[in-house]
Design brief:
446 residues, Amidase signature (AS) enzymes, 11 strands, single chain, globular, eight-stranded mixed sheet, alpha/beta, three-stranded mixed sheet, binds glutamine
Length: 446
């Protein structure tokens, strides 16, 4: 009830929720009270949570912040939603995001932009901006997010939170509306690494319903939080401190690294030579996959349908013209172009080859070091509207996050200080499936 009260009071300004499931939440909370009284409570019994509105929730609207799905009531739960429910959480509602998770500022939502609780004239980051803003404003203690190119880590960074992007295949994508399937991963957004570890325990694991889910054992994340950081090697890529990085963030990252040295870690200068190709590579691959994934929104099966279609062609064309926002259309056009017969080799195939080179940079680096450290985002939260009309400037906000998705690796963003009253963050990247190592490293710093 206290979270619902806080939402009623503050979310008119923040706009972090698209749907609040108040009645259902109170019913779940009462059931949780009964289980607790019986001494029969599962691990997260009664813990409130908010789900990014990209996870399907049975009987509850799942909009992906698009007019296209404004009327879509999911007929089933995403695996992540189901697993958290089995652990006992109480769902407060569904959080705002960039339309179909395409963006870095949460300004492309059909339901309006989200405001950053630290400065309401600034963006919360994106695309999981609603989840991050909700947790930062105290409108939920924890929230789910998804990260295709930084959408958990960057909003966590801009809102002063801890966000974990798990290894590709660690968390099931079943029931998570697809943006770019080879990059998408769900993960936790929380105040601390300990909270994120508790969430991850419930979210991670093999799922037969996701063909890219990996059958690797899930460790006890909370138990691993105190594993020694002493003697671990942290690689510091020289390419991550180039022009374009805000000086306050560079300084905060250096201070955090000095702290790690005090904790007994060793810093090693490394190189990730293909870093500068990550943005162009991602902005071919992600739109290409998006253009095929979004072909299902045709006005026939579910979602928005235009009024009075004259024929099938008119139905498809007007449904998509009216149902999708500008950024989504831009991605569909870029992706369709990159996949077209005449340009496939020049763009899509080339991007796939570069993706391998980026992955190889990390494989080489992890022969020498246990973690890689750098900034999460090049800038603190920026003003609403500041970059909204300049897609390339917006895409450059993802410079430190997207190579991790291209390589399939896990990474965590954790608060590392402030710039002019706004939070700034450190990012740690780990070896394949070493979420436990990242959570421990973040926990000991915190
Ligand atoms: N900002 C990136 C994009 O717009 C990443 C978004 C995401 O991770 N979902 O594609």
């Amino acid at each position: 009830q206290s979270y619902l009260d806080a939402i009623a009071k503050q979310d008119g300004t923040i706009n972090s929720y698209i749907t609040v499931t108040a009645e259902q939440a109170l019913a779940q909370a009462r059931a949780a009270d009964e289980l607790r009284a019986k001494g029969d409570a599962p691990a997260l019994c009664g813990l409130p949570i908010a789900h990014k509105d990209i996870f399907c929730t049975d009987g509850i609207r799942t909009s992906c912040a698009s007019k296209m799905l404004d009327n879509f009531i999911a007929p089933y739960n995403a695996t992540v939603v189901e697993k958290l429910a089995a652990a006992g959480v109480v769902t407060l509602g569904k959080t705002n995001l960039d339309e179909f998770a395409m963006g870095s500022s949460n300004e492309t939502s059909f339901y309006g932009p989200v405001r950053n609780p630290w400065d309401i004239n600034c963006v919360p980051g994106g695309s999981s901006g609603g989840s991050a803003a909700a947790v930062a404003a105290g409108l939920a203690p924890i929230a789910t997010g998804t990260d295709t190119g930084g959408s958990i880590r960057q909003p966590a960074a801009l809102c002063g939170l801890t966000g974990l992007k798990p290894s590709y295949g660690r968390v099931s994508r079943y029931g998570m509306i697809a943006f770019a399937s080879s990059l998408d991963q769900g993960g936790p957004i929380a105040r601390t690494a300990e909270d994120a570890a508790i969430m991850m325990q419930a979210m991670a694991g093999f799922d037969l319903r996701d063909s890219t889910s990996m059958d690797v054992p899930v460790p006890d994340y909370r138990a691993a939080l105190n594993n020694d950081i002493k003697g671990k090697k942290i690689g510091v890529p020289k390419e991550y401190f180039s022009a374009g990085l805000h000086p306050d963030i560079a300084a905060a990252v250096q201070t955090a690294l000095a702290e790690y040295q005090k904790l007994g870690a060793e810093l090693v200068e490394i190189s990730l030579p293909h870093t500068e190709l990550a943005v162009p590579c991602y902005y071919v691959i992600a739109p290409a996959e998006a253009s095929t994934n979004l072909s299902r929104y045709d006005g026939v099966r579910y979602g928005y349908r235009c009024e009075d279609p004259q024929d099938l062609d008119d139905l498809y064309t007007r449904t998509r013209e009216e149902g999708f926002g500008e950024e989504v259309k831009r991605r569909i056009m870029v992706g369709t172009y990159a996949l077209s017969a005449g340009f496939y080799d020049a763009y899509y195939r080339k991007a796939q080859q570069i993706r391998r080179l980026i992955r190889n940079d990390f494989v080489e680096a992890f022969k020498q070091v246990d973690f890689i450290a750098g900034p999460t985002a090049p800038n603190p939260a920026f003003a609403l509207g500041e970059k909204a009309n300049d897609p390339v400037t917006m895409y450059l906000e993802d410079i430190y996050t997207i190579s991790v998705n291209l390589a399939g690796l896990p990474a965590i963003s954790l608060p590392a200080g402030f710039s002019n009253g706004k939070p700034v963050s450190l990012q740690l990247i780990g070896r394949d499936f070493d979420e436990a190592g990242l959570l421990a490293a973040a926990h000991q710093y915190q």
